Amino acid sequence: MTFKDMFSQQIKMIPLENTFKQLHEQFPERNLQLPHSGEYVSDILKLASQKTGNSFPDKLLENRLEEELFFRSGFDTELYRHLRYLPANWHTHSFLEVVCVVEGQAVNHIQEQELHMCKGDICIIAPETVHAISAFSDDCIIINIVLRTSTFEKVFFGVLSDNDILSDFFTHTLYHSKTHPYLFFRTGGDPEVFDFVFYAYREFLRNHQYKERFLNNIVGAFFIILLRNHGSNVIVPEADSQGHDENIIFLLKYMQENYTSITLKDLADFFNYSERQIQRIIKNCTGMSFSQNIQKLKMRRAARLLTNPDLSVSAIAEELGYMDSGNFRHIFKKYYGMTPAEYREKK
After folding, report:
1. Residue 4 has what pLDDT?
2. How far apart are CA 33 and CA 86, in angstroms?
3. Tens digit of each residue's pLDDT (9 = 90 or more) over 11-48
4. Whether residue 284 sits in one domain with residue 166
5. DSSP class of residue 87?
6. Among 26, 44, 174, 335, which is least packed, fewest CB within 10 Å?
């Protein structure tokens, strides 16, 4: 299924897009394809409004866009097709944005970086990130999925509920990276992924019962397929800038699968890094040291195992790789503020 098959009318340039294109060609010195402030492009938008009869709320020109401009009452997820030749303007907002390039090419300006996107690319941009999209070609089709932060965390991180270290890693990348607050997927136009983008967009355009809930479910399925098919080769800009992007997801998964017995030396030897290098990579990408990550994995697993009344504390300690159950009890109490027995009783 292609976008053209489902939305043939939206392939054509609409009058507003044609007007933006004409203004771009009429005023080349304005460099409207480059990001500017809303104030800088306000006169262009007013000209376009006069020529087409389309009005632009002044709030769209503000540096920070508020949720009420994008979300209807009761909706947590909305989808919009990005207008071609719309002047690129710097802005930020409190919600998540997922940029999906359906056709053509575009430039996603994120803070001081230029992310060149082509057909099949998907970029998840964190809240409060200064960015601007430049889509200046007739064949460019971009679908933007916007989600309230709470909904994104529920559907995206819910997929990773059984993979603690990857969940922590994505959280750190999106919410704690000052220079690279985004995740970038090159899907190659994966039809399995983009079918869900098209389903969601079609539902957005319709006016059916239970629409708001159905949109959340479709977008939830989209994230599942995206992470299932492309989670292992997500481009992590912070790691990529240091030359470690190729191995980082594999490395974190390897830690997740072997956390009960793995040592820093084992991990460094397996990935052919020095212990100092591997420690720095893990710290940069998760915000925690190797030992902190391992301890967190063990403690989360311990908490889950303690809900099983048939497992003794000693058996749980042994399963998690602790030779001394007394040491396990001490670490658990330090981590949770109570002993394993007290934790079990509370649960």
Report:
1. 72
2. 8
3. 889 999 999 999 999 999 999 999 999 889 888 888 88
4. no
5. P
6. 26
Question: What's the predicted TM-score (pTM) here?
Answer: 0.83
* Residue range(s) defining the domain that contains residue 139: 3-231
Q: Are residues 281 and 159 in the same domain?
A: no
Same domain, yes or no, for 65 and 144?
yes
Query: How far apart are alpha carbons 68 and 309 in whole angstroms?
Result: 48
| Exposed/middle/buried for residue 68 (C-beta within 10 Å: 0-12, 13-18, 19+) | exposed
CATH number for the domain including 280? 1.10.10.60
Q: Are 35 and 61 in contact (CB under 8 A)?
A: no
Q: Judge whether 222 lies within some domain.
A: yes
8 Å CB contact between 285 and 169: yes
pLDDT of residue 152: 87
Q: Are 105 and 174 part of one and the same domain?
A: yes
For 3, 12, 13, 17, the CA distances from 8, given in Å and listed in that order, are 7, 8, 11, 16
Amino acid at 179: T
285 class by beta-carbon count within 10 Å (0-12 exposed, 13-18 middle, 19+ buried):
buried
Q: Strand runs (DSSP E) across the chain, as ranges?
A: 64-65, 77-81, 92-93, 96-103, 105-110, 113-118, 121-125, 131-134, 141-147, 182-186
Work out the number of other CB atoms within 10 angstroms of the CB of residue 83: 18
Q: List the one residue out of 100, 107, 67, 218 whose CA is nearest residue 155.
A: 218
* Mean pLDDT within 142-170: 84
Rounded to whole angstroms, the Cα distance separating 271 from 79 reads: 41
pLDDT, tens digit, 9 for 90 and up, residues 231-256: 877 887 655 555 555 567 888 888 98
- Count of all residues that appear for the chain in the document: 347
Q: How many domains does the chain have?
A: 2
Shared domain for 166 and 227, answered yes or no, is: yes
